[in-house]
Amino acid sequence: MSFPSVYPPKQLQVTKKLLVTIDGPAGAGKTTVSRALADRLGYRYIDTGALYRGVAYHAKKRGVPPGDDVALARMLEDLRLGFQRTEKGLRLTADGEDITDRIRTPEMSMLASSVSAQPAVRAFLLQVQRELGREKAAVFEGRDMGTVVFPAADVKFFLSASEETRAKRRFAELQGQSPASLEEVERDMRRRDEQDSTRAIAPLQPAADAIRIDSSAISIDRVVELMLGHITAALERP
């Protein structure tokens, strides 16, 4: 992301366990905001997009076409995905292998969007995600957290930003990882937006009761504080 965080991390004294979801398109700032929000609340942060990227990585490694639902279902029968907290932060493992650094590429981003449209993948990860959220006290980042995975979440957010802003942020994130130009990043982002928003299963869209925030012209601090205001109100409700 291009906008910096300037506040010193200050964890709130939160005893009530809520389940918070943050959905939105790529480059809107979900990852940075979700991590900061989870830190402030003392909650777990769950990057569900990493799970889809993990499936995509495994499919590519196994030579399974991302659009072949039957083949993907067979592949998922023995795939073990999970998160491990390390000194480097939260890491994604697939069958015990740390694949965190291998899934953060434009190719994996597009493949993740493709596999996410397959019923077998969504059914598999729906169980994984709901198990991770069973005890609440967590911030889930994704694209259908508030609409499909956790329709009864305590607080739902939909974080967006202009296409230009999102492309610039993603381009900055990819520096040193990908030779893609800003124009290529913007083109890929537009393609993924279309894939995610028009797919038949769980398309990217705000939940009817989601709180919408546009991060185009405000800092990460302000986004987090806005969210904390809504969460504080939820915490105070009986």
- Counting helices, strands and paired strands, the structural category is alpha/beta
Round the Cα radius of gyration to an integer and report it.
Answer: 17 Å
Assigned CATH architecture? 3-Layer(aba) Sandwich
Number of domains: 1
**Percentage beta strand:** 15-25%
CATH class: Alpha Beta
Number of strands: 8
What gap, in angstroms, lies between the N and C termini?
36 Å
What is the CATH topology classification name? Rossmann fold
Compute the average pLDDT.
89
Total helices: the number is: 9
What portion of residues is helical? 40-55%
Shape descriptor: globular
Low-confidence regions? 1-8
Largest sheet geometry? 5 strands, parallel
**What strand line-up does the widest sheet have?**
2-6-1-7-8
The topology string of helices and strands comes to EHEHHEEEHHEHEHHEH
CATH superfamily: P-loop containing nucleotide triphosphate hydrolases
Brief write-up:
The protein has 238 residues and is α/β, with parallel strands linked by helices. The protein has helices at residues 30-41, 48-62, 69-76, 106-115, 119-132, 145-149, 163-173, 182-198, 220-236, and strands spanning 19-23, 44-47, 81-86, 89-94, 97-98, 138-142, 155-160, 211-214. It has one domain (19-236): 3-Layer(aba) Sandwich (Rossmann fold), CATH 3.40.50.
Provide an overview of this structure.
It contains nine helices and eight strands. It is about 45% helix and about 15% strand. Helix 1 packs across helix 9 and helix 3 runs parallel beside helix 5. The strands form two sheets. Strands 2-6-1-7-8 form a five-stranded parallel sheet. Strands 3-4-5 form a three-stranded antiparallel sheet. The longest helix has 17 residues. It is α/β, with parallel strands linked by helices and about 240 residues long. The N terminus is likely disordered. The radius of gyration is 17 Å and the shape is globular. The protein has one domain: 3-Layer(aba) Sandwich (Rossmann fold).
